[in-house]
Amino acid sequence: MASARSEPPVAPKAVKIVVAGGFGVGKTTLVGAVSEITPLSTEAVMTAASVGIDDLSKLPNKSTTTVAMDFGRISLEEDLILYLFGTPGQDRFWFMWDELIRGAIGAVVLVDSRRLKDCFGAVDYFEQREVPFVVAINLFDGVLRHKAEDVREALAIPSEVPIIMCDARERDSVKNALVDLVEHALVRTVAAL
Q1: pLDDT (tens digit per residue) in 72-83
Q2: Residue 6 forms part of a structural domain
Q3: Domain containing 64 — which CATH number?
């Protein structure tokens, strides 16, 4: 009599994702909203050294900033774990991006549609390196201030790059954005084969 063999357990796949965007767009908030572990954050109090460098005119209540990275983790399925690496938004910290993006399947470029110019650098960075990315318009106060197609046109984003709405404070919204990125990265990978 043959005995039934059970399938050996499958080790989960770990996937690295980068969350990028301009200064104060909500990257730390996004990582914190979705992470199933206490996120690692390198938030530091802003000092007089940032006066005249960091534009706080649209962010009067901002008192901290990411100086290295944010890190979190979320399991999308039993066999798929996403490791999230949030970048600092200021230009002076961009030297770290090359290390943070190494091994990533893609990136979420978080956008504050009131300050689109702050995300041009992130969009250019991923386009130049041919890293799959989605543009996630952060719904501050739950309000969409500009239509997705208007943002696409303003940022000159190719039609194959998904533009999605995301409330960085809401776990389900962030999770949906991450699923969209994973699907987009898979499509790009299959198309390249």
Answers
A1: 999 987 788 999
A2: no
A3: 3.40.50.300
C-alpha to C-alpha distance for 78 and 10, rounded to whole angstroms: 9
Has residue 4 been placed in a domain? no
Provide the residue range defining the domain that includes 106: 13-192
Reported pTM: 0.81
71: CB partners within 8 A, 6+ apart: 31, 39, 40, 41, 83, 84, 85, 86
> Is 60 exceeded by the pLDDT of residue 182?
yes
- Structure token pair of residue 143: 């309000």
| pLDDT score for 144 | 73
Domain total of the chain: 1
The Cβ of residue 92 has, within 10 Å, a number of other Cβ atoms equal to 10
Could you give the 3-state DSSP secondary structure of residue 176?
A: helix
5: in domain: no
Residues whose CB falls within 8 Å of the CB of residue 4, separated by 6 or more in sequence, listed in order: none
CB 21 within 8 A of CB 109: yes
CB 137 within 8 A of CB 144: yes
Q: Answer yes or no: is 7 within a domain.
A: no
Q: Spell out the residues 6+ positions from residue 36 whose beta carbon is closer than 8 angstroms to its own.
A: 72, 73, 74, 75
